[in-house]
Amino acid sequence: MRHGDKQNNLGRKKAHRDALLMNLACQIITHKRIVTTLAKAKALRKYVEPLITKTKKTATKEEIMHNHRVVFSYLNDKTAVKELFTVVAPKIAARPGGYTRIIKLGIRPGDNAEKAMIELVDFNEIYGNAVNTAAEPAKKTRRSKAPAAKKAEEAPAAEETATEAPAETASTEEAPAAE
After folding, report:
1. Half-sphere exposure of 178 (CA within 13 A, CB side)
2. pLDDT digit string, tens, across residues 93-138
3. Minimal CA–CA distance to 28: which of 54, 58, 57, 52?
4. The CATH number of domain 14-123, selected from 3.40.50.300, 3.30.420.40, 3.90.1030.10, 3.30.540.10
5. DSSP string, 8-37
6. Is residue 67 within 8 Å of residue 89, measured between CB atoms?
7. Bridge-partner residues for 37, per DSSP?
8. Considering only CA atoms, which of 127, 105, 97 is closest in space to residue 41?
9. Is residue 130 helix, strand or coil?
10. Per-domain residue ranges of the chain
């Protein structure tokens, strides 16, 4: 019985499974997206997201070196570790979690396995631009309402000054028309 066993063994022994996840993690870090089976993608997400989180928690030089060594023990690939800390870490610094996205691609014709594409979220230009362009108009409308509210507050004050000195406003209106 497998009561309470959440580990997906992927039909492999522990050493084979660790090697598989290590290779998949190196590939997703270097290529930013890979196509694999859905089960492997879900297992990879649990494997790689804590490693990406370790790149963010760096304050002192000792902690940086310690996190490099911890991540290297999971990846065993110097180029992937370097890519992770130099390219991926600055892009995901503001993100609180959820660094990967899994997109289902249908079934594989040979063995009917479900295929999925797993990718790093901040490195997808298609989804990234859509989110940014959708967010920008909302910011612009908020800003346009704020100056309108300020103008509405200034308008009664302007009316009070206009009633006190109508001769000054009339002279200022004629001056631009004369030019």
Report:
1. 6
2. 889 999 999 999 999 999 999 999 999 998 887 765 544 444 444 4
3. 52
4. 3.90.1030.10
5. --TTS-HHHHHHHHHHHHHHHHHHSEEEEE
6. no
7. 115
8. 105
9. helix
10. 14-123, 131-178
Q: Does the pTM of the predicted model rise above 0.70?
A: no
How many other C-beta atoms can be found within 10 angstroms of the C-beta atom of residue 59? Answer: 7
- pLDDT tens sequence across 37-94: 999 999 999 999 999 999 987 678 899 999 999 999 999 999 999 999 999 999 998 8
DSSP state of 123: G
Q: Quick: pLDDT tens for 51-67.
A: 999 998 767 889 999 99
Q: Computed over its alpha carbons, how large is the radius of gyration of the chain?
A: 29
